[in-house]
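Researcher: Before we compare anything, I want clean individual predictions. No alignment, no superposition, just each chain on its own. First chain goes here; please echo the sequence and then give the structure tokens.
Model: Echoing the first chain and its structure:
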Amino acid sequence: MLQLVLAASTFTVAAAVYAVIGLRWWRRARLRRTVLGLVAGLDLEPYHAAALSFEESEAAAAELLLGGYLDIDAEGAARLTEEGRDPGRPPPAHPLPAALLDAVRRYDPEPVSIGRVVRYDTEYLTWHWAYAREREASLPHVPRIPRTPTHDRGWLLDCCGCVAVVLLLSFWCVAGVLLVLAPPHGLREWVASAVAAAGLAALGLAEGADRAVRARTACEDPLGDHARRRSHPALAALDEQRRLDVRRSADDDRRWRGVVSADDEPDDDEPTDEDDDWWDAYHYRAADEDDEGETDRSDGKPRG
């Protein structure tokens, strides 16, 4: 008789738990389909889409490279070409590569990396922030993208969830102990015990099933995912080697600095070449003293 009660109770509790998980799956999947449908209908400007994947500077450099304004070697050094130095040639139509071209011209005639311009050129950074604000302001017509529900649901629901988890764990422990301590007799009780054991196993796997539902219905950055599915036309037009050169130049901000300005002067706390020379001279002097000491000891004379 106890086995029948355990079988009915475990089956009921497991069905209730998986019903909640299934309801969550249905709700999150429907919301995910809605979000992906909204994002798929967006017609983003190429540089806006590149900005969502943090590749707008690489795309601008690629457009300048294709237009013959500058050249980027295998070490990531960007140099202006003769056409890029020509003040009479019109700049690119889009303002982002035009601003990058102006920034590279400020470092001419020395080579500079794209990463150096993007991270440390004040005029370019000021213009880039203004462009980002203008870009965001140009999207008021886009429908508001709903967010996937998160764990921040309020203290009342969190407390109810904790109480439910405690009750489920208590039920699982009590039912497991009773199932082990009460041996079944007869075919009907053996079947009931098997059903109860299956219900307890299903309850034990419920947490993993809930995590799988959350992972498969996650939609954290749909706009960024949509933008990363397609590359900027200028980057796509480059061959693999030139695309690698552009990315190497964008990642480097130390090696190629162009014409050194006042902002590029080393800080007082940073080690300079004079400090290195002093350190090397100190070691050379110490090495000479050690050699002299060894010579004195080999002659049998006291050192000093």
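Researcher: Okay. Second chain, same rules.
Model: Second chain and its structure:
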Amino acid sequence: MRFDFCTLTLCVLALAATSGHASESANIPALVMTSPNSAFANYEDKCSNGGNLDNVNREKFLKLMLADKKSKLSQLKVALLNEIKQSGDEPRGEGVRIGEWNQTFHDRSGCGTNTNSYSAFVLTVTGGNANHTVVKSLVTIDDDDNAGKRTLKIRDIRPIKLRNDN
């Protein structure tokens, strides 16, 4: 039984070392904002087969945009918070939440060129015990890699009006 446990442990460690989680901890290059709505990072691997598209820099890009008052994402958040305030409702938590990001476009040409888009819903959350959550917008960002030069930018923000229950 000991041999089986050790073999299993080695297999698990080998899988962890080759999974996407290992590449997330690799040397991630600095992200440079080129405008309030775009950024780039230069990766060493010019033929990464999508490996340069790490979550670390994508999440950093989103945080930097939210912190910049001139970015479209920050302005959307401010506008939605003002909408909550004008309605007389109380924000729950931060009041505006960005949902999970999902890949909504992917095209790969060879090993070094990837064009991708990711989209997420932006919601307002209000109320105390009576929680009121409404999807207000769909945000799409482009996340492209061209031979190691990764560019991120806002593609579009579309308003969504699903329901208007008061």
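Researcher: What stands out in the second chain?
Model: The first strand starts at residue 32 and ends at 35. Additionally, The chain is about 30% helix and 40% strand.
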